[in-house]
Every structure is written in C-alpha cells, then in structure tokens.
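so my prof wants the structure for this chain in the tokens format not the other one, which i didnt know existed until like an hour ago. anyway here's the sequence
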Amino acid sequence: MNKILLIIKREYLSRVRKKSFILMTILGPILMAGILVVPIWLSLQKSEKQKIEVIDESFQFSYISSKDGQRKGLIPENESVHFDYPEIKIEDARAGFYDTDYDAILYVPSNLLNSGQLGINLFYKKQLSNNVQEHIQSNMSKMIYEVMLAQNKVNMNVIKDAKDKSTFTLRTIQLDETGKDKETNTAVNVGIGFACAIAIYFLIFFYGAQVMRGVMEEKTSRIVEVILSSVKPFQLMMGKIIGVAMVGLTQFILWVILTTSIYSIAAATVLKGMDIKQVQQKEEVIRIGQNLDVNHMGKIEHNPVVDLWSKFDNVDMTEILICFVLYFLAGYLLYSALFAAIGSAVDNEAETNQFMLPVTIPLVFSFMIAQFVTQDPQGSLAFWFSMIPLTSPVVMMVRLPFGVPMWELALSISLLIGGFVATTWLAGRIYRTGILMYGKKVSWKELGKWLFYKG
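here's what i got, hopefully its the right format
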C-alpha cells in the first residue's frame, strides 16, 4: 500500500507542477466566468442609433399630417433605430444615398397589398444589426396584418382581446409522494443535464488519455523496467490511475472556486448597479422580434427569460454537483484502467487506434442515447443505459435534473464501481504482460492470451 501511495504522490506532484496544468487551471475559470458575464454586459451596451430613410409609396406606414402637411411615420422607433419620411422618389433617394447620413433606405412600393407578394426592400451601406432588421420586419408585418383584417371588416378589438386571453404559460410542477410540489422547467433540466454529461465525457477522455500516454512514455523509455524492480505491475497501474484522478479532481475543485470568485467580482464591479431582470427582459423582447403590441407592453407581468432563470433555484444543484463528482471519478477509474491497458500493449500512439475504438464507442453511443433520454427520462431505455457501467456516467447525468429515485442512483453507482473493479482486474492482467513487451505488434487475439497467463 505504501508503494501505491508513493506512486500516487509522484504522479500527482509531477502533473500539478506542470505549466500546462497551471495555465489551464487559470484560463478555464476565466473563460467560464466570461461566458456568464460577457453576454449580460454586452446586452447593456447601447449600440449606435441607426437612421433609416423610409420611402413609403403605399401610405400604409405613414400619413400626411393635417396640421403642418408633413409626412408622419407609423413604424415604432426604439433606442437602436430612427426613421425619417422625406417626400422623395426612390430613384432620387438611391442616387443621393451616399451623400446623406442615412444608414439604409426602406422602400415600400405603392402596390404593396395588390402585388400578390410583399415587395418591401431595404437598401443599406453597411449591414444593419439583426435587432434592427427584426424590429422592422416584425412591426411592419403586424401593421400589414391589421390593415388586411381591417379591409375585410374584421373587428380588431376582438382579435386583440382573443390574443390577450388565449396567451398563457404552461407551468410544470413535480408532485412527490409526500404531497410536496416543485416547479420545474424542461429546458433548464436538459441544459444542465447535457452540460454535465459533456463535461464528464471530455474529462474522462482528457485524463484517461493522460494515463495512456504516461504508460507509453515509461514503457518506450524503458524506465518502467527500473520501476518494476521495486513494485508490482498492478501497483504501478493503480498508482498512476489514482494519481491522475486526484489531479483531475484538484483541477475541477479549483475551477469551481475560481469561477465562482471571478463571477462574484465581476458582478460586484462590471455589473454593479445593473438590474439583471431588466437585461433579461430586454433580451427576451429582442428574441421574440418585438412581436407584441407596443401599447400593451406595460401589461406583461411574466417574462419567459426571467422565469427560466428562476427555475435554477428549483434545481437541487448540490445533489447534481455531488453526483457529478461521483460519476466522474467512477467513470474515469473505469475507463482509465482500459486506457492504461492499451498504453501498456502498444509502443506508439499510431498503434492505439485499433484498441481505442471499442473503448470509446460506449461513450459516443451514450450521447446518441441522451437525446432520447431527454424525451422520456423515466423510460426503460433511460433506465437501463443509466445502469450499464460503460454508459451510466453520461446517461445518468442527463437524467438527474429530471429527478431520479435514490434507489436507482445507489444501484447505478454500485454497478459502476463494480464495473471499475472488473475492468481493473482485466486491465491488470493485460498490463502486467504488455508493459514489458517490446517491438511486437499486438492483436486482439494476443490480448486474449495475456488475460489467462499465470504468474
């Protein structure tokens, strides 16, 4: 046991002292915090107001004022766009476009409602922002819709009243056996589940590959012969696997701490005094293309994005974080044993391809299954693939935000630990022979023989 501890210490210290480890430990949280902070900060930055010249020959979006005889516009403006309605022909507007300070020309032909297909054109100098284009299209579409209904003598008040009264938000509430209820959101559950599954997938591959390369380096440099004079092959393999696992766990814990700290600092400085709910409401208005009646915007009480963020409070993140660590460690230990066996059986990375594919197929297959799991997280397909040790680290993390009975979690983790013990035993049989085998191209048949060697 002391020898395994020495190997663990050696593997751990040699890796955490590397510049690459320190660099990734610092850059990872910065990137993660940036993903959280930058979109909010950018959404608060006021973009330059764009001026648009409107040539409305149809008089559907403008009218002549009886007071001063000037043409007045009907298209709503916002902080990003301003409209002017000069009395000018489209040919003259195009000819003198670059002599004006307008960013675009919005041309509405006279036969707009009789042409069979709406022919509204937007001429620009530089590409307009998506927000401005969506603002123009959604508001003009709504106005044309109302004009066409009015022409057919449809009561607009009835239409608006029906829209207001028929719009609702479907709340999903989980009711447990004790009678307690908890509001949930499928989009949040899917997002959290897939984020955890993707993280486990890449961490298993990243640190498992480190084990494989470490074994190959020691084998090809012949230093392993010196090491094996003092320790058994199984002790060396276990020490290397556990040492790298501790490196991964250390980096993960540091990522969580640093990401939280950086985000907290940013929230207290960059985002200080900003109303995040207003930001979220602004983002939602942009997302739906401002397709709501501007006269009724003040009546909106619930914002989908605000409600979406509030659903995070209803997710047991402590349970998810604990399970993430457990499934990462157990999944890593299972796969890293196989990676170590592959590293011991070959002399260079080119030879690893034939052995890597069968090992990685279950992880890749897990993601194919995951999309069906989100549709029916309590179904038999989701259940069985969250029990199979080779697929459970990914599939169970996708299921977890939807709620998994404790007995299923306990059974899944127990089977995963059992799978680790079994694969470690098999990998140890291959490792003890392959680590001292040089210059021979190994086949699957040869690996099968190594499993039954005595000694």
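also thought this was worth mentioning. Confidence is low (pLDDT under 50) at residues 275-309.
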